[in-house]
Design brief:
two-stranded antiparallel sheet, mainly alpha
């Protein structure tokens, strides 16, 4: 097969993945909606649809894995050269993090919001960010691309999962402060479990984010002769690091838990997303490789 053929295969696999995640979304929606009865929750009638939704979610993740791999084959490089490739790989990391953690924790309740987010990421990538497969720009032709960008993408996927959990915490906390949980909300974990899960995700991936920043500095010295130049992307990556470090510090030493910790986690995550979206697309500097 030619490089062009592999590129078409990759595009088809990404569309298959998008369609499969859409099926999973509708099944998760069905499982959520029809589990609610006037006299309480009846999960027995929707267990099968929830399991089928997870199967489709897994198939969509597998198709996305193949789509990312074939994108790399078509370009004869790692598939992280522009915003389209960052996005499909980021969606893949997010999906894998959900499936892996779902084996340890019961995260089926997160299937609906996570499938929505993945559909938004993939839909935006396909419609607005897509660029044909092409060689890397000279500045990205380095082994450090594999190390630095891979660490950053994995970190982002886990940060996004942690933020999803933190958002759920704040939603349920607000509901409980106003009164009793709704029938649907009663099936979700306690606030204590959500608080701990969000914290553990950040604590797990924060060292990897630290490594990503250090690896980027080493790459910058090799490419541009300086370790740090306060480029917009470097600056916002450091801001994200400071806020997540403050989050971990506040939890460990100051005993921050619950609502305050969730808001700080969301603030830190928002700086990562701002860096990823705004700085990549509209920012200036040596790190603007969106391809747009």
């Amino acid at each position: 097969m030619t490089k062009s053929d592999w590129a078409y295969v990759s595009n088809d696999l990404i569309y298959v993945s998008l369609f499969t995640f859409a099926v999973a979304f509708f099944l998760y929606t069905f499982a959520t909606a029809f589990a609610v009865r006037t006299n309480g929750m009846d999960r027995s009638s929707t267990i099968k649809s929830g399991r089928v939704a997870t199967i489709f979610f897994t198939i969509g993740t597998a198709a996305l894995i193949l789509g990312v791999i074939t994108r790399g084959v078509s370009a004869e490089r790692v598939p992280w050269g522009n915003m389209y490739e960052f996005s499909i790989t980021g969606a893949l990391t997010f999906a894998i993090a959900y499936l892996v953690l779902g084996r340890k924790y019961d995260l089926r309740w997160l299937g609906l919001p996570i499938s929505i987010l993945i559909l938004l990421i993939l839909g935006t990538a396909i419609t607005l960010l897509y660029r044909p497969s092409a060689p890397l720009v000279p500045a990205l032709q380095s082994t450090w691309l594999v190390v630095h960008v891979a660490a950053a993408i994995v970190s982002g996927g886990v940060f996004l999962l942690s933020n999803t959990v933190a958002s759920t915490y704040l939603w349920l906390d607000r509901m409980e402060r106003k009164g009793e949980r709704s029938e649907f909300a009663k099936r979700l974990p306690s606030l204590e479990i959500l608080d701990q899960l969000s914290y553990r995700l950040v604590a797990f991936v924060f060292p990897l984010w630290t490594f990503a920043i250090i690896a980027g500095a080493i790459w910058a010295e090799a490419a541009w002769g300086r370790y740090w130049g306060w480029d917009p992307k470097e600056t916002w990556a450091f801001i994200t690091w400071i806020l997540y470090a403050a989050y971990l510090h506040a939890r460990v030493t100051a005993g921050w838990k619950g609502r305050k910790a969730a808001w700080l986690s969301l603030l830190a995550g928002s700086t990562y997303l701002f860096n990823y979206v705004y700085v990549n697309i509209w920012g200036t500097g040596r790190h603007t490789y969106s391809g747009l």
